[in-house]
Amino acid sequence: MNWLKPSWQAVLAIMLCLIALALGAMSKPEAAALADPAASFNYPFLGTKGLMLGLVLLAALISMTRIPPLAEAVVLFVGAHLVGWLLISGISGFEGTALAPYFLLLTAAWLLGWRCVAVLSGLRPMANWARSALRLIIPAIFGAWILIIWEAVTRGAGIPFILLPPPSAIGARIASSLPVLGADVRQTIFKAVIFGYVVGSGAGFITAILADRVPFLRRGLLPIGNMVSALPIIGVAPIMVMWFGFDWQSKAAVVIIMTFFPMLVNTVAGLAASGHMERDLMRTYASGYWQTLLKLRLPAAAPFIFNALKINSTLALIGAIVAEFFGTPVVGMGFRISTEVGRMNIDMVWAEIAVAALAGSVFYGVVALVERAVTFWHPSVRGG
Amino acid sequence: MDSFRDKLIPVTSILAGVVVLWYVFAVILNAPFQRDLDRRAGETPALSEFIGKTLSQPKPTLPAPHQVAVNFFENTFLRPVTSNRSLVYNAWVTLSSTLLGFAFGTGLGIIIAVGIVHVATLDRSLMPWIIASQTIPILAVAPMIIVVLAAIGITGLVPKAMISTYLSFFPVTVGMVKGLRSPEIMHLDLMHTYNASASQTFWKLRVPASVPFLFTSMKVAVAASLVGAIVGELPTGAVAGIGAKLLAGAYYSQSIDIWSTLVAGSVVAALLVMVVGIAGRIVDRAMGGRPA
Prior knowledge:
- The complex is a heterodimer of chains A (384) and B (292).
- With 384 residues, chain A is mainly alpha-helical.
- Chain A folds into two domains: 8-158, no CATH class; 174-382, MetI-like fold (Orthogonal Bundle), CATH 1.10.3720.10.
- Chain A is 77% helix and 0% strand.
- Chain A is built from 16 helices and no strands.
- The two termini of chain A are 42 Å apart.
- Chain B is an all-alpha fold and 292 residues long.
- Chain B folds into two domains: 2-62; 87-286, MetI-like (MetI-like fold).
- The longest helix of chain B has 40 residues, at 2-41.
- At the A-B interface, α5, α6, α9, α10 and α13 of A face α1, α5, α6, α7 and α10 of B.
């Protein structure tokens, strides 16, 4: 048996397929058609059932033969995703009628997908581009399978729409309500978040420089700043709404307060990060406080400052969205989420969350890119 | 008493400065409304009397510290604990879902971290998503979880605890992955020379090495968990809890109530972080750690 290298995922997938075959009907209409052959012939997976079973078996068997890992991964990838797509497209029109074999096949396909990821993570390519491609592909397959299982299960089991809409419906909702989403993003992100983020981080930074000049201030502010970071600052939202009104100014105020302390604490820590040797060197150059600050200590503090900027990018979004739960004009992401939840338009809520997630990732990504450009000398950047 | 002079004096003097500033701002912010009241009543009070009045409005723009303190004291110690205006009662409601969510979140975080450290597939596929998920504003999901679970008949503690779980398991996972990987190659090699099995290496080397990381991330997690529980109370019109009291205060403009509720939330947060910190120190000492 030298040509065979069994994997538990593939073996399990084959077993699930065989059980699915033994159980027979994949959906209620099919069961009805089998019970009464004269009646109707309209049921899901009319022509594709054999194809799907065959695909899973074939892919599982091929994957267990001794072929190059890359070929194995491709076979598994194609098999798993083709079956997933066939399952999802076949069930449309018959939502909620799926029986056990449907879910068994889904599980089998998912196992093949897992095997594919396992094979891919075992690869150790030499080329740089291949390694970074793998770093993207592996999580992408994982994410795709979360969506596939979500879609297949919600539609196969007929989960009520208000409980959990399938991703396709959320996507359709995003596409159909782009203007509304755009207006919300403009209100929440371009007005409240950006302004609050810049002012809050800037104020934290300036206070940190001030604290650096006055040691008394630093010794007093640092413990307070550390403690405040554990407090539920988000609770100031209703107060800010009372003070600054319903529009974006109150949300920006919440964001300022939330982003101030992480920046302060991290910058103070960063300013202490430069070594004694370097500072002594600057002294031998007879450089003044500001020269040392600009040429040595701020660059040394950059990783800490960017760490704070990254933390703040998430905090700012959370602050603005949650502050909108306390009252807004009739636009804004937090407003939309809380009202659409009330009206049971769960797909709109998911659409808004997807947009928020995208905005958060982009925000974080931009900060990370700027960090790479600014702290190009730092070991963590040079290393990879 | 170096730490006394190094820390306590600066901290207390800055806090005192904050209180003074607070009073000044309370007078400035409350003055327009008070002037309005006085004009309507046709009074022209002296300056000291005017300042006294600005600091004792029933619904001030910015309540003075002593107003908040009195309100906090009344609602914490003078009311029966069962009354739904008692801060102790509301804090307990929030605390219970915080703790439940924190326990779940820590457990889940540890399990995922163990999986990530031991299964290469999970490391490559799941870890990037966990890091990416930290960049998205997860709290936005809170209202939906509450309402959707209420629609299928799950209400009360569990939905709020789920939000807390969701928020608290990320820091624990990230910290534990770091902690379980923290043993140096030398130590791992030593275990190798002892012919230690994978589980022995795990229990005798990786787990002890990860404990300090665990407690550090648990401090972050417990704070996040409290925020999750508070925000979880906002959208549903929950009847009790710190978030519900904040919302009620916002609706009826009871600014003093909002501030004292905030103080209560902060006290709970500080206590939770402190308890986790003390637990960490006790565990550290029990494991034979020496103060660095």
